[in-house]
Every structure is written in structure tokens, then in C-alpha cells.
Design brief:
The protein is globular, with a radius of gyration of 15 Å. Strands 1-2-3-4-5 form a five-stranded mixed sheet. The protein has helices at about 40-45, 45-50, 70-80, and strands spanning about 15-20, 25-35, 60-65, 90-95, 110. By secondary structure, it is an alpha/beta fold. The protein starts with 15 loop residues before the first strand and ends in a 33-residue tail after the last strand. Helices cover about 20% and strands about 20% of the residues.
Length: about 140
Amino acid sequence: MSQVGAPGEDQLHPDGYGWFEHDGRVVRFFLEYDTGTESLKTVTSKLADYQGFPTDKFGVLLFSVHSACREIGLRTALSRALGSYGPGLVIATTSRDLSHPHGPAGPVWALWPAESGAAVTQRLRLADLPERGPRIAHHTSTCW
């Protein structure tokens, strides 16, 4: 697992951190890859670390879970853990049993708003999730 943060700051331990560029948009994200071996209470307890970190300045928090049933359970657990005030960061969830030709780049992500909790009203492409953080020029050419 990687660590994100400067020495002396609280450390995050996401399963991944990355960015996705498409049509001039850059979506940065932290990834929590859930296999279903931890309780949902354990999964949602990780939110405290993200809330203590300036996550909103660096990315969206993505939860990828193994099944649609687990995603509904996670979204319900998020509502219980965070209440109606919301986490102060953007969260999106997906279920790996959703199939799409573009995989996780396709319209498989559901934003978690505190107001609707477990309900999934729309699926978005990874590129359509909110952009967070500073604009940084990345070289996409393989030739230097």
C-alpha cells in the first residue's frame, strides 16, 4: 500500500491513487478496492483518515466493491457513518459486477450524495466525475 502525505502529517493508506485524463479533463482519485473481507463498519472507518487530510484538494474518493449488493450496503453504511452533513469530500462508488466495454472508465460510477444515501440515480464515466486539485501539465507522449 502506498502512503500519501508529508512527514509528520496523518498518513492515508489508499489502495491506489491516480488520475484519468480525457478530452482536457483530469480527474484525480484515491481508490479503495473492497474485496468484501472487511465489515462495512471497518470500510467506513477509513473515512476519518480522508476527512483529516485535504482530500478535496487532491481527488475524488472512489470505492470499488465486488457486487451490487455490497455497493448498496456500502452506500447505506456511508449514510449512517456520515449522516446528512456529508464528508466534505466527493465520494463515488461502483460495483465490479457491472460490465462495460470501457471497464472502470465507462459509466459505472455513482456519486454518493448525503441527501439520497444508498439510492443510485445516475452512473457517470470516470472522466465525468468532478475535477479536484490544481491543474498540472502531464506529458502524454511516449517519445522524449
